[in-house]
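User: I'll paste a sequence; please echo it back and then give the predicted structure.

Assistant: Echoing your sequence first, then the prediction.
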Amino acid sequence: MNEDILIPTVIISGGAFISVILYLFLLKISNKMLRMFQLYPESQDVLKLSLRFISSFICIMIFLIFLRKGLKIIGLDFTVDVIENIILGSGKYFSAFLIVFGGFYISKKINEKIKGINTGVRQYLYFLSNLVINTAFILTALTVIGINITVFVQVYKIILLTLGITLSLIIGIPLGIYFSNKINKKKRKAKVNKKKP
């Protein structure tokens, strides 16, 4: 009996060992990627979380492949089917990772373009571009995975509406005051010109 369990135990233990080593290697690579992108702090946290999630996911998939092999040797076929379904669905998750990664890359490129703008609202533009772009790509990734995002889309619409109103107030109020002062100065000049003759 012990000899029948020895080979599957070695296979499963080897899978766990390989997964842990690979996880540590992927963490090292993800830290290099984070330094390479130099993102806005909020975006960097989200990318760090995404990379750790994906690293964990890849390592879990590798462990599940070894677990499947070990369970098949023992003869537990009902668990093998469950593990096979998990492994077959992993393509969706990797696609979602690529979408999120692409979104952060696009966000980085847009932020590089914003750096050239010399205005007082540059920080606001950084925040706005990061929020809009990263959220759109994250919502797309959730859709690829198969999560119903109707609620998230509605919240996203509310956030965008709020940001739009805020932006219009930030721009509109100073413009209104500026034009109001110009109009008042012209009216005063017209009154002064009428009194002179």
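The chain has a mean pLDDT of 79. The helical segments are 2-37, 41-74, 77-88, 90-115, 122-145, 150-195.
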